[in-house]
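User: structure tokens for this one?
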Amino acid sequence: MALGWMTALKLVPWGEVIEATPQIMQAARKLISNTRKAPADASAQRIDSTPDHIAALQARLAQLEEDQRSSAVLIESLAEQNAQLVRAVDGLRRRGMQLLLAVCALGVCTFALLAWALSR
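Assistant:
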């Protein structure tokens, strides 16, 4: 099972993901700022309908705007978490490479020591 995860992690182009992270964050912040702007004045348009229907439509519009703001906050949060995850995985990848190099160096040293001991 671990082999599958390792293969999947090797297939991810981490360099591209890391490069794209700031753009994702910028897009999420732009979405947040766009949804935080004051809503357009709905009273400028005349709707020929009953007052109850208009009130229901206004309530629905307010709910949709709130949902949009909540979604934008969630998207920004997910983008930040994604950026943290990418940084953490990249750090783990680097540490794994360092560990592999250390193990290889120890293996070479062990082999050299064994060869030296056998030659005496």
